Amino acid sequence: MGYPTKVRLIQRRSGAQWYVKFPAAVTGVLDFQKGEVVEWTVQDRHALILKRVEAPPAPEEPARKKRR
Fold first, then answer.
1. How many domains would you assign to the chain?
2. CA 20 to 30 Å from 46, out of 11, 19, 60, 64?
3. Is the pLDDT of residue 56 over 80?
4. Which domain range does residue 48 map to?
5. Residue 65 domain-assigned?
């Protein structure tokens, strides 16, 4: 399932800044942290790839109970 998001533009005297907001559901699943560095790569005119420069370690899963 995708998450429709608008591309925004901030016009300033010194130039323009484009930005995209991530839905909370996406940031929660990926466990993004404030200030985390990411890198965009253009795959083609229809796709961007967002890559973490340093991904945090995966959270540990809770220990499972043993069945008898």
1. 1
2. 11
3. no
4. 7-52
5. no
